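HUMAN: Forgive my ignorance: could you write out one protein's sequence and backbone structure tokens?

ASSISTANT:
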Amino acid sequence: MKNKHKNLTSFEDHLDLQYGKQGTESREKYEEEFEAFKLGVMLQELRKEQGLTQEQLAEKCGTTKTYISRIENNVSDIRLSTLMRIISKGLGGHLKLSVDI
């Protein structure tokens, strides 16, 4: 039986080809932007799970609808203090961080 998947490329190989090997400047930039994207998606999903609009979330945590939108759409960097306020006051959660070295 022939291997139907012999021409498939792994995601890791695709990233290597598209952005360079891990540790290169272009790959590090991609990884950083991807983490920011994931954060925005996570916040948007949590907000929607709680039935909040961007405006309601912004009111609860003392920021603007525009800023919440910019975070969710990966258009704006977010300060750690603001992220903590959105999670705790806006969504009623607790922020836990981890570092991979």
